[in-house]
Amino acid sequence: MTVVIGVHRSNPSLYHLSRLGYAEEELAALGETVTWHPYTDGVRTGAHLAEGTIDFGGTGSTPPVTAQAAGHDIVYTAVSAPRPDHGALLVPEDSPVRTVADLKGGTVHLAVGSWQTHLVAKALDDAGLSYATDITPVRGDSGSEAKLRAGEITAWVAQGAELVAARRAGGLRVLIPTGEVISDRSVFFTRRDLAEQRPELVEALTRALRRADAWAAAHPREAAELAAADQGGTVEDWETALKALPWTIEEVTEEFIAEQQQAADIFHRTGFVDRAITVADALPRKA
């Protein structure tokens, strides 16, 4: 068969894997081929799997939860190590917002539906506030940083090279360091039919991911040059951002499932998803 792997800019492991040929090598050993399906919004990963557009994908922590809530029968296959410095919620240096509770009534720009929703919703929940009623979440865009600096919005969640660039420019401070709220792992998942009928394919793709991560860890400058040429920003900012990532692929653990369940419960309580789910249902069934 031809395995279709989804790739988007927000998942650095898959992004670099798509350029290195390791997936092709690993699946060729099984007599299979690989094609890549580029798309722009990782939030669509669950739907793409359900529709058969892709066979395997990777995102942050939120999309697999929303995929389950939408009724898609996904299976977790692997996760990255925690990424505590991958992103942060920023406010202006002179902002009166000093604690998470001070966000109440404010407008927060973020990638709605991504891991950033998990970050903000969990931080608010920990402070006794609600993502649904106590802030106005707005999908961020290329103008978010300028709006934050101009005082037009309260806070902005930045990640990767854009976070490095924003902090280097000065005038902003971190209100919520990601690692103090969530583990922020990359999450890899597939459809149940592929996970249970062709586990050797999943194992091969996991090996390929580990090889790609090992390459990125050993060649941060080259990885940064690839990202900057395709996504913009400076090579230096990308190199700093990529060096902050763990570049380690791990097995799905009970601890990870528990964190995902906590996120799912918060999302349901605040109405971000319209039904409760059991995250452990997205594990392979035991034979």
TrEMBL record:
Residue runs in coiled coils: none
Signal peptide span: none
Residue ranges annotated for the Solute-binding protein family 3/N-terminal domain, each copy included: 2-219
Alphabetized Pfam families for the sequence: NMT1
Family: Belongs to the bacterial solute-binding protein SsuA/TauA family.
Protein name, UniProt field: ABC transporter substrate-binding protein
